Amino acid sequence: MAVLRFWLAGLVLAAAPATALAQTDAAKPTPPPKAAPAPAKAAPAAKGKTVEGITVTGGAPDSQTLIDRRSFTLGKDLQATTGSIADALRNVPSVEVDLQGNLSLRGDGNVTILVDGKPSPAFEGKGRADALQQLPADQIERVEVITNPSAALNPEGTGGVINLITKQSRGGGLTGSVYASAGSAGLKRAGLNLGYNSKTLAVTAAFSGNYQHNKGHTTDERSALDPASGRELTTSDVGQGRNLTRNPTGRVNLSWTATPSDQITGALSYNTILVQGHPHDFLINNDLNGLPALVDDRLGERRFLETDNSVSAGWKHTFGEGHELSVDAVYNDSLGRDHTIIASTQTLPAATVPLELQRDDDSRHHEELRIAYKRNVAGGALTAGYEVRREDNDANYLDAKGPTELSLVPVAALANHYLYDQLVNSLYATYQHGFGALDAQVGLRVEDVRFTLAQLTSGERDGQRYQRAYPTLHLVYKLNDDAKLTASYSVRVQRPLPVFLDPLIYVQDPQDVQSGNPHLKVKEVQVYEVGYQQRAWGQDLQANFYFRDASHDFAQTLTSLGNGVFLTTIGNFGSSTAYGADFNASGKISSALSYSASLGPYVNRIDDGGLGVSVGARSLAGVGGRVNLNWQVRPDDMVQFNVIDNGRRIQAQGLIEQVFTLNMGWRHRFTDRLSATLTGQDLGKTNRFRRVLETPVLSEDFVARPVVRSVVFRLDYRFGGGASKPSRDPGFDYDNGGAGGPGPG
Questions:
Q1: Cα separation, 418 vs 395, whole angstroms
Q2: Which end of the chain has a smaller Cβ tally under 10 Å, C or N?
């Protein structure tokens, strides 16, 4: 009942206006929140200073609200300790990761993912969903959710930005930790974290390996009007998959204070995702009388390998307080190889089908240079910068057929090879000034964008060049030491992925073909947010309201070509709007019980502009939320309960159904250096992904049932630097086990 009373209090406070988060320095992560025995209070506003946020230390995960973002510490999240980054993000308010690994923020799947404020190759390509589900979350210290960034940040990402802050070494000298995990489905995971700190040098290194079996089942039932007869035709695809996944990964970060005024930073990361699987699909196409006309049993052997590398370096010179110049450079490359050999047994009509090899290869490169200058001007803080960003992709699809593997011959009509190159030049400036209790930040970003797509197979060549200006505004008004009002505005964009621009049709299977559109316009979204934050009764209560208005919206749509064949295309179909609220409450119920809870009602509306790809204008209302409970059973034992409810989401031609999840965990500290964690995921076995499509001429019911329910046990041992003292709170610091102060990260 205590949780209910606090939650109702948060809903009452929701009658006040609501928050938005701004970005004051895109390249620099904010310092981690520090736990304190008493709730931290907002600092008084001052000219040129940001109004401080409210730090919450009672819930799981811990959170800190700043002018430009909400930061969630993962140290107490047991699912993050034993699971993947996707498992950790599912427990962060406003964030959803479905069972396919697709990430969304407030229902918008176009989200930019950064690591330590920089782009990561693992989250830029088609392997992003696999990376989220395979990369261990234990290397992430906290997650920054930026729903309305300022002009200092790239406007790409209509849903916003998620910044993953990696752990940095703490303590003097050499420190480290080692862990091993084992769980259901043959899960095995091990890792080593090392750190070294001196007066001028800090080095953090993390290495891990992941081995896991995955399996799941899918059903895809479709019904469409036959273009020739006008009668209904039905198809079905019953599939099952078994995968073996290996995922070695490593990173090294260093920071060198060369002089009292100069700091040099560098980072290296390496990640490989290897998936070896056996996809099995049983296809049936029915005739006009509902009788099978085609029966095809397809058994495949798939090998997917993606290798990601990243190198970054930076230099910052401090002239004086609030006066600095920084230069940062990033280079990412990614190489993907997705090869599947398919053996088909067609029994109706009886026919001998040759072996088929599908090779989908791609390589991506990303180079980025940033120059930023900060200085206090006229009682405020000015930040100005220049960024240049270049991306190039080489995608090559090949389909070969033959009676045996040694006699496979490429089919020229199915080839698809294209090159994509994009160059973005950006200038931006933000100015922040305090006016008594009001803190205001204005910003403007101007970009010149050009891209070319050379279709080598067909000889076509397309491209676009455009300029855009992106204004931003962020306001914070301090009511008192425990309450504040916030408001913000920004313009965000979604640029089409290269695969969405490729005009050539390629065949996926006997039921599916796909093509892109090189003339897609950039989706633009106006984002408005208002909010209210309050510390009351020892609790942190927040109400945030948002409205998003999108033009030139685009999405993938499905149409029937007849004879059981369906075409997936991409196009600008009209406009969409989304409005809703985030209600959040967190704190302590008693000395042994803490909680965090969030509730997010929303309404999404889509209007296809009369283009006929959907069913005209339609709306969908829903609600999602999550509740976390931490029970400190004894000084060395904590039990955690986690409930997540992802609401229904509208799509251009249908909707994605609601998903409910129940997780539990237990952590025991044997000594200051040795601890164990046990977690259970999807205990109710309720996880499934269901997409329902319904138009006047086409319907689809797609259901995926991956085996998600699992139990994982993990053992951690920390060494070097001295062990930290026991605390009543079991949110152990896994930052390499040091007992000293934070490193220069």
A1: 6
A2: N
Name the DSSP class of 615: S
Residue 61 CB neighbours (<10 A)? 25
Dihedral angle, C-alpha 22, 25, 30, 31, nearest 10 ° = -140
**Domain membership flag for residue 736:** no
Cβ neighbors of 475 (< 8 A, separation 6 or more) are 438, 439, 440, 441, 485, 486, 487, 488
Q: Note if the pTM is more than 0.90.
A: no
What tens digit of pLDDT does each residue of 577-612 get?
999 999 999 999 999 999 999 999 999 999 876 555
**Residue 87 domain flag:** yes
Residue 445: name the closest of 511, 492, 407 by CA. 492
pLDDT on residue 609: 66
Q: Which two tokens stand for residue 264?
A: 């040099």
* pLDDT at residue 141 greater than cutoff 80: yes
Q: State the CB neighbour count (10 A cutoff) for residue 610.
A: 10
> H or E stretch including 556?
strand 539-562
Helix (H) or strand (E) holding 525: strand 523-536
Contact 137, 714 (CB under 8 A): no
Cβ neighbours of residue 5 closer than 8 Å, sequence gap 6 or more:
none
- By mean pLDDT, which of 150-154, 225-229, 261-265, 733-737 is the weakest? 733-737
Is 683 part of any domain?
A: yes
**Number of domains present in the structure of the chain:** 1
Tokens of 364: 């991506």
Q: Which residues pair with 142 in a beta bridge?
A: 73, 165
In a domain, 224, yes or no: yes
- Round to whole Å and give the CA distance between 489 and 526: 8
Amino acid at 661: T
| Per-residue pLDDT at 608 | 75
Residue with tokens 């990561």: 120
| pLDDT reported for residue 612 | 53
DSSP 2-55: HHHHHHHHHHHHTTS-B-----S-TTSPPPPP---SS---PPPP-TT-PPP-EE
Whether the bond into 61 is cis, omega within 30 of 0 = yes
As given in the structure block, the two tokens for residue 122 are: 């693992």
Query: In whole angstroms, how far apart are CA 433 and each of 18, 43, 323, 475?
Result: 21, 15, 15, 10
**CATH code of residue 427:** 2.40.170.20
Return the H-helix or E-strand segment holding 470: strand 461-480
DSSP 723: P
**pLDDT at 697 (0 to 100):** 87
Q: How far is CA 130 from the centre of its chain?
A: 11
Q: Are 197 and 204 in contact (CB under 8 A)?
A: no
Range of the domain at 577: 2-719
